[in-house]
Design brief:
2 copies of one chain form a homodimer. By secondary structure, the first copy, chain A, is of the alpha/beta class. The first copy, chain A, has 2 domains: 238 residues, 3-Layer(aba) Sandwich (Alkaline Phosphatase, subunit A); 157 residues, no CATH class. Helix content of chain A is 32%, strand content 21%. The first copy, chain A, has 14 helices and 13 strands. In chain A, strands 9-10-1-11-12-2-13 form a 7-stranded mixed β-sheet, with helices on both faces. Chain A is elongated, with a radius of gyration of 24 Å. The two termini of chain A are 18 Å apart. Chains A and B meet through strand 13 and helix 14 of A and helix 3 and helix 5 of B.
C-alpha cells in the first residue's frame, strides 16, 4: 500500500525579513508578486521554521547542515573544515584543516630539530592586510608534499587562507603556529598525542617551506618595490579534523543531489557524497539564470529521490539593504518554483523555505523565523493561502526547526524506517 | 489552596490520518460523527502532537514510552526486551532478552568445553519459515533452568521467537549464536566481560538443550513425515538487557493504571509497575467492547491518579486501508470517551489523542502529527470547537510532543513538584 514519492527542498537564501517602512510595514516577500509561492502555500501545509533554534542566527553552513539533518551543534566543531569548504576546497573525512594568514616575518627562519622556529620574528600577522596576489602566493605552496602528507592551500579574502593536510595518521590536537602577536617568532606547532605530533611536524615543515617558496616570490618582490611588507609566510591556526558525517544516502537510504550556487553549500553537498552538478548560468549573483537551476532540479529528480536547491539572489538584497533587489530575488525564486512545479512529476513533495532571514534593516543573517510551505500528495492542506512571514503563522506545520525538515519530508515520501514496532 | 485532581490519557491507536479522496478530502476522523470528541475539544485546549518528534514514524511501543514520559531515544536500545514484551512475555529489569529463530540443523550437535558448537551445520535458518506448531516447540523448551538461570521462550510469528534469561549476574554484551548463514555450525556465544561470559555460557547450554528437546519432538516428527525440514533448534541473536526504567509511581509520585488491548502496551505498563487489569470484552479487534474499556478506566480512576487507555480499533482500519472501518474505529473511540466523561468525576483531566497516524493512503504508521485535546477544570479553553487533524491547529497547545503530555497533565492535576524555588 505504501507508495514512495520524491522530495525537493527549494531554499531562497536569506529570504526572511522584517517589516520595511517603505513597503508600508510589509516584508519584501509580502510585498513581492510571487503567485507560485502562494500556490504552494495554498495547496500545501505551512508554518514557521527556526533554521537552527529559536532566535539563533544561522550561518549558511550551519543552516544547511541542519536542514539536511546534521546537527550543527554536534558536527560544527572547529571551523577549519567548514572554512576550507567555504572557499571551495575539496575536504575529505579525516583531513586536518587550518585557518591561515599570509604574514610578514623578518629574519632568516630556521626550524630546530625539536620543532621550534628561530631566527625570524613576525613583523605583521596580516602582511598589511594584503588583498592582491594571494592566489599566486597560494599556488606557490599548494600541493606541496611533506613526508606522506599532501598540503593543499587556497586563498580566501584579504590575508586569509586555508590549509588542508591529507594523509594517513593525522590528529587535530595541535597548537597554532600563528603566535597571535607581532615581534614573536612563529610558534612551533605541538601535538598532544602521537597522531597530532605527526600533524605538528608536517605543519612546521610546511611553514618553513612556505617561507622558502614565498620570500622571493615575484608578488613579494613587487610589494617590496612598492614599499609594502612582503607576505612571505603562511601561518596556520585553529586546527580541526573534518568530522565523520554519515553520507546522505546512508542516512536516508535514498540518493540525494544539491543544486546550489555557492562553494560553501556545494562543499557540504560533496562532503555528504551527494550529487552536486555544475549548472551553467548559475552565477550566484542577481543575474543568475534561475530557470537553469530549476531545470537542473527537475533533471536530478529523475534519478535522485531528494534534491536540495539554493538560490542565492534574495540574500544579496538583504546584505545590501536593497529593498527592490530583495524583491527581485523573491520573484526569481518564484520563477524557479514555478518551473520546478511545471517540470516535476505531480507526486513530488516540494518544500519551499529559506535558510535564514537577512533583514533589510539589519544587513546580515538574523535569527528570525523563516516561512515554510510543503505541497504534495500526502500533506494535509491548511487554511493558509499566501507565502509570507506572517501569513504562514496559522499553518498546520506550526513552528518547526530546520532539523525537522528531513524527517517530515522522508515521512511524506514514504521512505523513512519506523522507530519501534 | 492547591487541589489535586486526577488525569486520564485516552489513546485512539493510529487515529491520525491524511485527506481521503472518497471523503472529499476529509480525514476519517474529520468525516466521522464524534460528538464527544468534539465536546472535549470545545471545552478544552487543543493542539497537534508529534508522538516522538516531528516527522518521526513511531512504533506503538516507542510512542507509548514517550507518552508515559520515558524517552525512547534513550531507553529503546536493543530491540530484544521490547520484542519480548511485544509478544506478551513477562520481562523484568535486568533480564537478558534475545530475538530467536526456530531453525534446522543437520548432524549431531555437541558443545565443546570452550564453548564451540561442532558436529552439525545450519541447513535452514528459518526452518522453511515454519508457521505451525511453534507454540508446542516453545513450550518444550520454556522454563528450562541452566545453572541458576531460568530460560523463558515464547513463539512469535512464523519462525520467530524470543528468549528471556532471568537470573543473577547476567550481562548483555554477548555475540549471536545464529551464524546468519546456512552451512555454518551455530556460533558459540561469546561474552565480552565476566557477566556477559556467564550469559554466553547459559545461552550455549540452552541452545544445546533446545536441540535435544526438539530433535525428536512430535511436531518435528510430523514435519519430517510430511517431507519438511524439522525446526530442531532455537538460535538466539541480538541480546539486550531490559533497561532500568523508573517505575511510573516513583517517577510521578502517584499510582497509574493501563487499560489496554495489546500485549506490547500491556507489557510496557507492567514493566513500569502500573496496574494492568484484564478487561473482559476487550478483544483488540473491531468487535471490542469499548464500553467495557471505559468502565475499566472509571473503575481504575477510583484508586489511581492516572490512567492510560488504548483502543486498538482505529489502527486496524488504517493498516487495512479501510475508510469505513477506520471511521467506525473513531466512533468507537467517541463512545469510549463519552462513557468516561459520563462515569468519571468532573474534576478529572481527560486528554484524548492518538499514539501515531496510520493513514488510509499509507497503510502503516506515519510520522504525521496527531490531534490532542485536554479538558478538565484547570485548562484554558481555546477557540477550537471540533476534534480533527486540522481543526486543532488553531488550539492553545500549539504543537507539542508525546513526551510533553505527562508534564502538562501532572501540572494540571496539581501533583507535580516545582522545579526550583
Amino acid at each position: 500500500m505504501s507508495t514512495r514519492t520524491k522530495g525537493a527542498v527549494l531554499i531562497a537564501d536569506g529570504l526572511g525579513d522584517r517589516p520595511v517602512a517603505e513597503l508600508d510595514g510589509r516584508t519584501p516577500l509580502e510585498a513581492a508578486d510571487t503567485p507560485y509561492l502562494d500556490r504552494v502555500a495554498a495547496e500545501g501545509e505551512c508554518g514557521q521554521m527556526d533554521p537552527i533554534a529559536p532566535g539563533v542566527r544561522p550561518g549558511s553552513d550551519t543552516a544547511h547542515l541542519a536542514i539536511l539533518g546534521y546537527d550543527p551543534f554536534k558536527v560544527y566543531t572547529g571551523r577549519g573544515p567548514f572554512e576550507a569548504l567555504g572557499i571551495g576546497m575539496d575536504v575529505q573525512r579525516g583531513d586536518i584543516c587550518f585557518r591561515c594568514n599570509f604574514a610578514t616575518i623578518e629574519g632568516e627562519l630556521t626550524l630546530t630539530s625539536d620543532g621550534k622556529f628561530t631566527g625570524a620574528k613576525v613583523a605583521d600577522r596580516r602582511a598589511q592586510r594584503i588583498s592582491e596576489g594571494t592566489h599566486d602566493l597560494a599556488e606557490a605552496v599548494n600541493g606541496m608534499t611533506v613526508e606522506d602528507v599532501t598540503c593543499y592551500v587556497k586563498e580566501s579574502v584579504e590575508h586569509r587562507a586555508a590549509l588542508v593536510l591529507r594523509g594517513p595518521g593525522l590528529g587535530a590536537d595541535v597548537s597554532d603556529v600563528d603566535p597571535h602577536d607581532a615581534d614573536a617568532p612563529p610558534h612551533g606547532a605541538e601535538g598532544k598525542d602521537e597522531s597530532s605530533r605527526k600533524t605538528a611536524r608536517i605543519a612546521n615543515q610546511f611553514v618553513l617551506r612556505s617561507w622558502e617558496a614565498l620570500k622571493d616570490h615575484p608578488v613579494n618582490q613587487q610589494r617590496v618595490a612598492d614599499g609594502k611588507l612582503p607576505a612571505n609566510i603562511v601561518m596556520p591556526r585553529g586546527a580541526g579534523i573534518a568530522p565523520h558525517l554519515e553520507a546522505f544516502a546512508e542516512r536516508y537510504g535514498v540518493p540525494g543531489a544539491c543544486i546550489v550556487e555557492t562553494g560553501l553549500i556545494a562543499g557540504i553537498g560533496r562532503y555528504l557524497e551527494m550529487t552536486v552538478p555544475e549548472v551553467p548560468g548559475a552565477t550566484g549573483g542577481m543575474d543568475t539564470d534561475e530557470l537553469a537551476l530549476a531545470r537542473a532540479v527537475v533533471e536530478m529528480l529523475a534519478d535522485h529521490d531528494f534534491v536540495l536547491c539554493n538560490l542565492k539572489a534574495p540574500d544579496l538584497g538583504g546584505h545590501d539593504s536593497d529593498v527592490r533587489g530583495k524583491m527581485v530575488g523573491a520573484q526569481k525564486f518564484d520563477n524557479l518554483v514555478a518551473a520546478v512545479l511545471d517540470g516535476a512529476a505531480d507526486e513530488v513533495h516540494v518544500a519551499i523555505t529559506a535558510d535564514h532571514a537577512t533583514p533589510i534593516s539589519f544587513g546580515d543573517h538574523s535569527g528570525d523565523t523563516v516561512p515554510i510551505a510543503i505541497c504534495g500528495p500526502n500533506v494535509r492542506p491548511d487554511s493558509v493561502r499566501s507565502f509570507g512571514e506572517r501569513a504562514v503563522v496559522a499553518g498546520g506545520l506550526a513552528r518547526i526547526r530546520g532539523s525537522d525538515i528531513m524527517p517530515i519530508l522522508t515521512n511524506l515520501m514514504g521512505v523513512q524506517e519506523k522507530f519501534g514496532a
